[in-house]
Amino acid sequence: METMLARTNKILFLSFLLLTSAFLATCHEVDDESEFSYDGESENGPAHWGEIHPEWSMCNSGKLQSPIDLLNERVEVVSHLGRLKRSYKTSSYATLLNRGHDMMLRWEGGAGHIEINGTRYQLNQAHWHSPSEHTINGRRFDLEVHLVHESEDGKTAVVGIMYKIGRADSFLSMIENDLKALAHTKGVERKIGVIDPKQIKLGSRKYYRYIGSLTVPPCTQDVVWTIVRKVRTVSSEQMKLIREAVHDDSETNSRPVQAANKRTIRLYRPNDPKE
C-alpha cells in the first residue's frame, strides 16, 4: 500500500508540475487571440488587456512594456554588443496558423538559434504586425515581423524587422500561396514543409537592443529585443495578403507605443568604415 509520505510527495510533485506549466503558459504569447482586440474604443482593446485575466495584469502595470519609440536622443551608439549570431537550421518543417489577429509561422522542434551574451535562444516562430509596432523617431512603418526565440530556461528574445512599401520581400514570396490557401479558412494549422529561416533577410549588421515585453497578452517582461536598423521593403499586395488571411475584421494588429520609462536603448554599430 502507498504510504502517507509517498502520497504526500506525489501530491507535492503534481502541484509543482501544475505550477510550472501554469508559469510557462503565462510566459508565452497566447495562441488563441480571440479574447482581446486592437480596437482602441473596445472594452477588450489595448488599454484594457490587463483587466481581461489576472495573469495578463502586466499589460497595464508593467514598466518594461513593448513596443517603444526608438528615438535618436534616447539611443546610445555602441560597438561592443557584437554582430548578431544566427545559427538557423534549413531542415525544420513549418506550419502556418491563424491565431485570430495574426498569421504565425511555427517551426516544429525549433529552427536553430541565435546567441546573445553567451545564451542560446531557439527560434520557434515568426508572425507579422501591420503597421509596425516599433517606431523610429516617431515614424511607424508598414509592416514588422517578429522572430520569437526561447532559451532552455524559458527566457524570450525577439528579433524585429520593419518594412516599408516597395519591392516584394523574397521570403514572403516563398509562402504567398500558403497564405492565400488560408485566406478562406479559419482555425486551421497548415503544414507548409521545409522553410529556411535564413531566407528572412536582415540586410544590416546594425541593430537596436533593449529590454521589453511581449507585445500581446500576457505581456511578459524581461524580453530581449533586437530591432534591425535597416528598414526593408514589402509589396503592398504582400502586406494586404497577410492581413486578409486573418479573419478579425480589423485593419491593423499593432499595439500602441508604450512608455520608455528611462530604459537603456543601444544601437550597435560595428567599428568598420565599410559599415
From TrEMBL:
<dbReference type="GO" id="GO:0008270">
    <property type="term" value="F:zinc ion binding"/>
</dbReference>
<feature type="signal peptide">
    <location>
        <begin position="1"/>
        <end position="27"/>
    </location>
</feature>
<dbReference type="InterPro" id="IPR023561">
    <property type="entry name" value="Carbonic_anhydrase_a-class"/>
</dbReference>
<dbReference type="InterPro" id="IPR018338">
    <property type="entry name" value="Carbonic_anhydrase_a-class_CS"/>
</dbReference>
<keyword id="KW-0862">Zinc</keyword>
<dbReference type="GO" id="GO:0004089">
    <property type="term" value="F:carbonate dehydratase activity"/>
</dbReference>
<comment type="similarity">
    <text>Belongs to the alpha-carbonic anhydrase family.</text>
</comment>
<keyword id="KW-0325">Glycoprotein</keyword>
<keyword id="KW-0732">Signal</keyword>
<keyword id="KW-0456">Lyase</keyword>
<keyword id="KW-0479">Metal-binding</keyword>
<dbReference type="InterPro" id="IPR001148">
    <property type="entry name" value="CA_dom"/>
</dbReference>
<dbReference type="InterPro" id="IPR041891">
    <property type="entry name" value="Alpha_CA_prokaryot-like"/>
</dbReference>
<dbReference type="Pfam" id="PF00194">
    <property type="entry name" value="Carb_anhydrase"/>
</dbReference>
<comment type="function">
    <text>Reversible hydration of carbon dioxide.</text>
</comment>
<feature type="domain" description="Alpha-carbonic anhydrase">
    <location>
        <begin position="34"/>
        <end position="269"/>
    </location>
</feature>
<feature type="region of interest" description="Disordered">
    <location>
        <begin position="246"/>
        <end position="275"/>
    </location>
</feature>
<protein>
    <recommendedName>
        <fullName>Carbonic anhydrase</fullName>
        <ecNumber>4.2.1.1</ecNumber>
    </recommendedName>
</protein>
<dbReference type="GO" id="GO:0006730">
    <property type="term" value="P:one-carbon metabolic process"/>
</dbReference>
<dbReference type="InterPro" id="IPR036398">
    <property type="entry name" value="CA_dom_sf"/>
</dbReference>
